[in-house]
Amino acid sequence: MDYAGLAEAAAAKIGQYRRDLGGWRDCRSTSEVVVSWRPSAEFSGNVYRAEGTVPACPEDVWECIKPVAGGLRTKWDQNVKDFEVVEAVSDAVSVCRTTTPAAFMRIISPREFVDVVLMKQYEDGTMLSAATNVEHPQCPPQPNFVRGLNYPCGCFCIPFPGEPDKTQLLSFFQTDLGGYLPQTVVDSFFPASIAGFYSNLTKAVKSLKA
């Protein structure tokens, strides 16, 4: 399997989402983030766009969200129970397995995801983490977990010109949770979950600077 090629394609896809501002419909707004959605072209669900400002420099935000073994994500993100690197394909690309706890008053049982992840830095200082679902021989479906699928998704940590202690965090979420969930549950879960992601991240970067 061409993991590097799949990772680059996922990064290109969310770059396209970033540029394409048409068709997004707002579904949730807090002091930290505005969440919008539109139908996914990848599967029968939705792709969600989240845009917010985090009161920290891009390096601190990246430290909290970067998808690496032993990273901080499992400590602050309530939707990530465990994260492991299954195979390091290169310095920038890895195959990872993520497990999530039960959620939404336990209506959503624990999930597992196997993704190829790309990390990249652009000339303007923007840092990107992009991912999409893959299969890997070391990651057969596990009992007690429902296998979910992430379609092209990721986060852009974008510097604010002239404001070094602020970061624009632009994220795209595109997940098939699998199982037999009512669509109303899925449609309610994601906007609330994404708002929680931004709220908990804001707290995490503050504690990192403390």
Characterise this structure:
The chain is α+β, with helices and mostly antiparallel strands. 27% of the residues lie in helices and 37% in strands. It has helices at 3-19, 58-65, 73-76, 183-209; strands at residues 25-29, 34-39, 46-54, 82-88, 93-100, 111-121, 127-133, 146-147, 149-150, 153-160, 163-173, 175-176. The strands form 2 sheets. Strands 1, 2, 3, 4, 5, 6, 7, 8, 10 and 11 form a 10-stranded mixed β-sheet that branches. A hairpin with a 4-residue loop joins strand 1 and strand 2 (34-39). It is globular. The mean pLDDT is 95.
**How would the global form be characterised?**
globular
Strand segment tally = 12
> On the 0-100 scale, what is the average pLDDT?
95
Helical coverage, percent range:
25-40%
Number of helices: 4
Query: Which series of helices and strands comes N to C?
Result: HEEEHHEEEEEEEEEH
Instruction: From the alpha carbons, calculate the radius of gyration and give it in angstroms.
Output: 16 Å
Please report which band the strand proportion falls in: under 5%, 5-15%, 15-25%, 25-35%, 35-45% or over 45%. Answer: 35-45%
Biggest sheet descriptor: 10 strands, mixed
Q: CA-to-CA gap between the ends? A: 43 Å
Structural class: alpha+beta
Low-confidence stretches: none
Short description:
The chain is α+β, with helices and mostly antiparallel strands and 210 residues long. Helices cover 27% and strands 37% of the residues.
